[in-house]
Structures are given as structure tokens and as C-alpha cells.
């Protein structure tokens, strides 16, 4: 078997059996080898932002990595924004980046570029395959590195001649290093704080935002009076009726200041200390309240759920966590507004839904409207690089074909990776995209004011305006094979949303929701 | 004035008065400052691949750099593939990459990433602005670096607090270092070769592909019997009736081997020695014929046109260069074929057209069909990273609003930066896109065979097939505000092409041309 065949065999044996790809000539032997390993599923994206975002969404739902196959440096670069988002999400992922044959690199052919340097900025694991015989072991090491808690991006650079070279050997899966134990004394120290008189807040992140962690955190809050928050952009947070409703820290510094007001001790549980998303003139970057102390119950690389469970056993042994009651908004009527579209979503959200949330400013009222909806998962924009929502929906739908995936998608962000719609159609994925179309980069209008820029005039405003010409997302979606309709009233949105959920395959609703601000 | 204002003032004073952008919060002061410097034109792209590709196309036609304004590391990364192409084209460009405020970087906010490392892979000029007072001088240095022969990418990283900080001072334009003189003796050495008995070929690139260089090279060829070739992917090559018709080296190694057969001396004039685009098992990477010697008349950083002119004066003092006669194909009829669509183009190409060529396999017969068409410029896919054609058309049309721009665009490449169509509509650019729709990554079908992969089966084939579902480029274009039609016969293509050229603003024709191979 050649290097490519051993690579795919090894990945499958290690539990990686989906490969999102946009290949080129240097990856042709990998592509050919797909037919020799029937367990590996290849999924085509029409640009690499779709490929890497889909792998991110897949792993967030499947709890195991997908592979990507990317074409040389430019392919990697095109996928970098969603790799950045995946890095911030601590998503496990195995990138295979094809490269020129080893002996060809000296010629600096036109597509040559510094793959290693670009991959190195992901702060993950990077290795260059040295020969066909080593590919199997390299791939096993990559999968193990990707799965190491809390999850990271492993990039394997695969020269074309290593791929086509004979002597490939399938590897033997290497167990990922388990999450580290919680440091001695951390639980006792936090328990002591919680028993004290000063106000405490827990800030949970990563795996703590799944049911077990949420229940423990909510019980701790109920028993001790501590506030409990989830990080602003969790990789995956479970919500809905029958689960604790944990508030996320806000995106705006002003919101966080309000949420943490009066807190004297901030306890981090798999989360980072809160900082402002951007700097603003004359405003603080560090959002820990003045005079408050920051403590760590467990770091991301540690077993955050075990830490919370142990802490709950100490301070809330008999406390049942408060759970969200089943309660939906009434189905609203009238022209779409930032509130009523969220109410439509809350009223109709199906059981077991996965929400890929890139609604940005249009989504501010969604958490309230869906808190009592049936149980669902929310996947957020984890690294702030827009263009993540549509590809993440692709990956989530492939990981969970029986669950409805809802992509809440802002218009300004949609065009980065819009060809994800084509992959949704090609793979017949159950993704319903609600395109929140306010015909603007609304967030930038707001940010222009927030940064205190004085002299804003027509040229600046023009750069936030997406209405010259209007983007017609119905046609764009149809052009990519996705049935689509337009909704300008709550009734139309409700009718189209219900129909989209009832039919298999992807749908898009161009929802004309005016800007919130 | 603040740093941002001084930056824009300085750029304009240095001759950079178009800025392609997709800004974010950290660039808000730059955006606000646009209204204080009326000479600077801001052009919005909906993703950064459009922004950087447009800046490339602009400079190739305007012969001076445009600026880009990009949002942090992810914005730069999204633009990297077309920056790679621009690097290979030696296109002058000034990237402004916004960054977090200097004091904010320590917090590793979510959008933080290693901008310097990624920008560093462009092998150009990179500087991080240290303070508002230095921005003007930094910008002048960036423009001078960008314009240094043969042209390169200068990246200025602009922290938000430098942008909003007071004390900005407009700089004083710095002259770009002129092209280096041709080394002593080089002209005489090549003249000697040309007078000798052994077969010689000239390979010209860069600025030598403009009229003056072409005429000198063609005269040399006519007087001495030397073959003359242009590099495979020139930044800009002038063609058509009344100009020498210089053949480009082929994309496929087999073509180059045929073209250079028998050559004993290969003389490089602002071009690189030919190498295979990719490596193939058992085939040579270096395409210089065995036993042939490689000589340099002038390097890219030297005055290649002066070198050719001086050489022509020595070896062809009385020779008029052979020029292409005005001759167009007959307007063909019938179902579209790889030949007849090119004939439609040749029959109808308007005077002074600019062709942005990303037709890939579908474009193989275009050079022959257009050789005797009215004079035009061709902008090629200079770095091999697909997704360049549509954005380059945007930039070319902004640089030359009175010239018709024709984008020959392969379907497989189109979805990378398809939102360039929206910018074409917004700016009402005279771009006619001929979308060569063969419903496949046809080049990869060919490459799969060429790399000698044995076991290709249905899973591999599926990854090159764009027909499940068909991409409907008419709807996609209309969704972005560009009028569009579909052509399946030569008559339809001719009719729609003529109409598109007659009407102002952008148009797209979805031309159903079957694969060449």
C-alpha cells in the first residue's frame, strides 16, 4: 500500500472516518486512495473555509475529530479563519495539507509557500511526513494530539511523493492523553470561598457547558447563592426545557460589567478570565471587576466536569439544580422585528435541534425566546472570525443526520463561505438556514460609535451598507441547489420554518429582519 | 490629526488613492478617516479574497499600488490565497492590517492571532506601526517598498490605538528605488550567443510582456532565428492585432518539453527558469532541455525592457518585429464546444479589452482564437491559487473604467470569491463574466490520470463532479445584483456577449461548455 492508503486506513482505525476536502493535484493519490478504504467518507466543499468550518462543526457534535484535506499553502490559508475559530473552540481536528513532492520543493514552483509557518500559528501540533513508511505512525500521533484535552488542531503536511510512495503501513491507534486531574486543594479552596460571605461567581467553559457540568454548576449556584455564567462563546452548550438555563457572559464589555457587578471572587472552570472582545479608547480591557480575585477550579486541559461534580458534592450535596420549565413564546404576527423572529424560533424549535449561531446582532433576543424550548445544542462563533455558521451547520448535520440543524445566519457574514449551501444540497443535509437579512454590517455601525470615532460621514456609512445592491439570498440559495423562500412577516417565517423542518434536505429562509440598533 | 487620518493622507499623497476593504471594529478609525480625505476611494468586498484579488488586478492595470484594509489575522488569512497570487505576479500592493490596541494584545482576546508570522510568509515587506506620529513615515516606506522593482507586497500592521492616537503627521513620499541596471556584459554575452550556431530561446516575463519589451524580443527573434516565449503566467501581457504574438510556455510539462525541444541556450529576461507546475512520478521537475545552458539577460529586479532594447539594437538594428495581423474567427454556430466559444470571443472581443483569465482547462484554445483580435491585455492566474479571476476583474475595471473587462471564469474556481460579483454590481463596473461551466473540476480529472494514481473509483470521481447539484450561476449572479443569462449555443453566447458589452455595468453569461478532455 502507498502512503496515502496507509494514511486513510490509519485514520479510520483511529476513529476518524469523515474527511472534508477541497483537493488539488498534489492530493490526487489521497483522493484515489479513498476508494480503497470504504469506511472513509469524503465530503467536498467548494472552498476551504467550508471544509475547515465543517470539520469544526462535525467534531463539536460527534465528540471526535474529522479530517480535512487541503491543497498546499493557499488551501490552508483559505481555511485559516475557520481554523482560527476551531482553535479558540479547542475543537479536535486533523488537517492533512498536501505539499509538493520533497524533491520538487527546491524549484519553488508557483504554488510553493511556507505551509509550516502558517500552520504553526494555530498553536497546535504540526508535523511533516518524512516517508511513506512513517505515515501511519504520524497519522496516529496526529489523532492523539488532536484528541488531547481540551482538543486541538493537528496538522500533518503530506508531500506528494510520500503520498504516492510504496511501503505504507497502517498504524496502531494511540490513546489520547486523558484530561489532567484537578489540582489538589482546588476544590476545597473554592468550597471555602463559596461558604464565605463575599459574592462569588463561577464562569464555566468548554466541556462544563454540557449537561453534567451545567447541572453541577447550577446546583452549586442554587445551594450557595453564587452566580453562574457560561463563557461568551462556548464550543457547545446544551439548553432548553429540563436543563439548567445558564446565562452566557455578554459580548459587549458593558454587559459583562453589569453581569459581574458586585462579584468579589471569580472562579474559572475551564474558562478564560473575561476580557473585552476589542479595545475601546478609555475603556478597560480586563473585565474582572475591580478588587475582585480570580481563582481557578480547573483549567481547560483538566477534567472540568469532575471538578464541578466534586465541588457540588461538597457544597450542594442535597440540592437539585433549578431547571428551565417547558415554555414557549406564543406564535407572533406582523412585520418581522428583532423580537418576533426570535419568538417564532422559540415557538417552533424542534426537539433535539442543533443551532449553529452566527446571527450576531440579530440574535440578541434568541436566548430568552428559546430558554424553555425543547432541549437543544447551541454552537457559537467561537473565535470571532465570521463565516463560520454555514460550514459548522454542514459538519453538525453530517455528525448527527437524524437531528434538525438550524443555522441562524447574519447577512453580513454569510458571503464568506456561502458555498456551504451547495455542500448541504449535495449531501442532502437537514439544515434550515434562517438568514437574518438586515442589509447591513449592523455590528460595525454600532462599533463605529463605540470606538468613539468622531468624523464619520457618508463614505464610512457606505462601507457598512449591504443594500446597494440588495443581496437576494433566495436566488443565491437556489443557485446552489437549496430550496429557498422569503419571509417579511412572522406568519411567513413560521409557515416556511415549519415546512422546512418537515421536509428532508436543506432549506433557506431569507428573513427580512430590521436591524436591532 | 489621528494616526488613521495621517495614514490615508500619506497614502493619497504617495499616489495610492483606492483602498479595497472588508473592515472590522479594529479598523473603525481608519474607516471614519475616509471621510476626511476625499481623494481616497473605499471599495467594499464581502470577503477578503475579493479585497486582495481586486488590489492585485488594480495594480496590474494602473501600474501603481492600491491599498487593502483587512481585519486582524483572520482577515489577512482570508486574503492570503490572492496575496500569494499577487506575490507571484510581483504586484505592488500596500496591505493595512488592523490589529488590537497595543495594550490589549496581552489579553489574547479571541480574535488575537499571529499576524506577523502569516504576513512574513509573503516574502515582502512587513512593519508594525509603533505610534501615531510614525504612521506617515511608515506608510511612505510601505509604498516605496511596494513599488520597488519588480513590485512586491508591503504589509503595515496598524494597532487600533495607533490608528486612533493623536499626533499623526502626513509623510513625504519616498521615491521607490528604480530598477537596477543590467549587469555589465550581459547584453554582449547574449548577443554573442545569438550570433552563434546553437539554437537559442528567449523566455521573457514581467514588464517585458508589455508592448515595448514584446517588440524588442520579437525583433530579436526575427533577426536571429531565436525562439521567443513568454512566461506561462505573466502578470500582464499585451496582445492582439498590431502587436507581436509571443507564445506563452505551456502549463503542462509535456507542452514545455515540446516547445523547448532542441534549444541549447535558454536566455531568461525577467523570467524564472521553467519548472513543472507539480511533480509527477517519474517525470522531471526541471523543464530546461537536457544539456541546454541557462543564461540571464536581466533579472526581475533589473530593467528588463532596457536590456531587451539594448540587445535588439545590437543584433536586430534594422529589423521590424513581426506583428499579428488583424484577423478574427468567423462567428460560429451550434452547441457550445471548447473551440467555438473561444471563436465567439475572438470574433467579438472589443478594442482595448482587459481579459482576466481564469478559464483554466476551458481556455486552452483562447490564445489562438484571439491572436488577431483588437489589441487587449491578458491578466493570468499568476500563482496558481484559484479564485483570482473575478476579483482581478473588479480591480482592473476600477483602474480602467473606460475599458471593457472580460472575466473568463472556470466554474470550479468561481465559488472561492464569487461575491466579487456583488462588488461589480455595487460599483457598476464594466465587467462581463463568461462563466465556463463544465460542471466539473475538469483539471483534476486530468491530473488524477497524470499523477498515475491507479485505483481511482467512484468516490474519487465524485470529488471532481460539480453536477450534484448543478450550480446555477444565473441565479447566483442575479442574487448578487448582476444581470445574467445562460448560453448553450454559440449563437446565444454571441448574442449575450454583444449585449453585455453594449450595456454599462456588469453581466454574467453561464456558458455551458463541455469539458475539453
UniProtKB/TrEMBL annotation, chains A, B:
InterPro entries: DHS-like_NAD/FAD-binding_dom (IPR029035), THDP-binding (IPR029061), Thiamin_PyroP_enz_TPP-bd_dom (IPR012001), TPP_enz (IPR045229), TPP_enzyme_TPP-bd (IPR011766)
Keywords for the protein's UniProt record, in alphabetical order: Thiamine pyrophosphate
Similarity field: Belongs to the TPP enzyme family.
Domain Thiamine pyrophosphate enzyme TPP-binding: 376-510
Classification via CDD domains: TPP_BFDC, TPP_PYR_POX_like
Lineage top rank: taxon: Bacteria
Keyword DNA damage: no
Residue span(s) of domain Thiamine pyrophosphate enzyme N-terminal TPP-binding: 1-106
Calcium as UniProt keyword: no
Gene Ontology molecular function: acetolactate synthase activity; flavin adenine dinucleotide binding; magnesium ion binding; thiamine pyrophosphate binding
NCBIfam families: PRK07586.1 (NF005760)
The name this protein goes by in its record: Acetolactate synthase-1/2/3 large subunit
Amino acid at each position: 500500500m502507498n502512503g496515502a492508503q496507509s494514511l486513510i486506513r490509519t485514520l479510520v482505525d483511529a476513529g476518524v472516518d469523515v474527511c472534508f476536502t477541497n483537493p488539488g493535484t498534489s492530493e490526487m493519490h489521497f483522493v484515489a486512495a479513498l476508494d480503497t478504504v470504504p469506511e472513509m467518507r469524503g465530503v467536498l466543499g467548494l472552498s476551504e473555509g467550508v471544509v475547515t468550518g465543517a470539520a469544526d462543526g462535525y467534531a463539536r457534535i460527534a465528540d471526535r475529530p474529522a479530517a480535512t484535506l487541503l491543497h498546499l499553502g493557499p488551501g490552508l490559508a483559505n481555511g485559516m479563519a475557520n481554523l482560527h475559530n476551531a482553535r479558540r473552540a479547542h475543537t479536535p481536528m486533523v488537517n492533512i495539507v498536501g505539499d509538493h513532492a520533497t524533491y520538487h520543493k527546491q524549484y519553488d514552483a508557483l504554488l510553493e509557500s511556507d505551509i509550516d509557518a502558517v500552520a504553526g500559528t494555530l498553536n497546535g501540533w504540526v508535523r511533516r511526513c518524512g516517508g511513506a513508511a512513517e505515515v501511519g505512525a504520524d497519522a496516529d500521533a496526529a489523532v492523539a494530539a488532536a484528541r488531547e484535552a481540551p482538543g486541538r488542531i493537528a496538522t500533518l503536511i503530506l508531500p506528494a511523493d510520500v503520498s504516492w510512495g510504496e511501503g505504507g503501513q497502517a498504524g496502531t491507534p494511540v490513546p489520547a492523553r486523558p484530561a489532567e486531574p484537578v489540582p489538589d486543594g482546588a476544590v476545597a479552596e473554592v468550597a471555602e470561598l463559596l461558604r464565605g460571605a463575599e459574592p462569588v461567581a463561577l464562569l464555566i467553559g468548554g466541556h462544563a457547558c454540557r449537561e453534567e457540568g451545567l447541572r453541577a454548576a447550577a446546583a452549586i449556584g442554587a445551594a450557595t447563592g453564587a452566580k453562574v455564567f457560561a463563557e461568551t462563546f462556548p464550543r457547545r452548550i446544551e439548553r432548553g426545557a429540563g436543563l439548567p438555563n445558564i446565562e452566557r457572559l455578554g459580548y459587549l464589555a458593558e454587559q459583562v460589567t453589569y453581569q459581574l457587578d458586585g462579584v468579589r471572587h471569580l472562579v474559572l472552570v475551564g474558562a478564560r478570565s473575561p476580557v473585552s472582545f476589542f479595545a475601546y479608547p478609555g475603556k478597560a480591557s480586563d473585565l474582572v471587576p475591580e478588587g475582585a480575585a480570580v481563582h481557578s477550579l480547573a483549567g481547560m486541559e483538566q477534567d472540568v466536569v469532575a471538578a464541578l461534580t466534586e465541588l457540588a458534592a461538597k457544597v450542594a450535596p442535597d440540592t437539585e439544580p433549578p431547571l428551565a420549565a417547558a415554555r414557549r413564546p406564543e406564535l407572533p404576527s406582523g412585520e418581522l422585528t428583532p423580537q418576533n423572529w426570535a419568538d417564532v424560533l422559540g415557538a417552533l424549535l424542534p426537539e433535539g435541534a442543533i443551532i449553529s449561531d452566527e446571527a450576531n446582532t440579530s440574535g440578541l433576543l434568541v436566548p430568552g425566546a428559546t430558554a424553555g424550548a425543547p432541549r437543544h445544542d447551541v454552537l457559537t462563533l467561537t473565535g470571532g472570525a465570521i463565516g463560520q455558521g454555514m460550514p459548522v451547520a454542514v459538519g453538525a448535520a453530517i455528525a448527527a443526520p437524524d437531528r434538525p440543524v438550524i443555522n441562524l445566519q447574519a447577512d453580513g457574514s454569510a458571503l464568506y463561505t456561502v458555498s456551504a449551501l451547495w455542500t448541504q444540497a449535495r449531501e442532502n443535509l437537514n439544515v434550515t438556514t434562517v438568514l437574518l437579512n438586515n442589509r447591513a454590517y449592523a455590528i460595525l455601525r454600532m462599533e463605529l460609535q463605540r470606538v468613539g470615532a468622531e468624523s464619520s460621514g457618508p463614505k464610512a456609512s457606505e462601507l457598512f451598507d449591504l443594500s446597494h445592491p440588495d443581496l437576494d439570498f433566495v436566488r443565491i440559495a437556489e443557485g446552489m441547489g437549496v430550496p429557498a423562500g422569503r419571509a417579511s412577516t412572522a406568519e411567513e417565517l413560521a409557515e416556511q420554518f415549519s415546512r422546512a423542518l418537515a421536509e428532508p434536505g436543506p432549506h433557506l429562509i431569507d428573513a427580512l429582519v430590521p436591524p436591532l440598533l
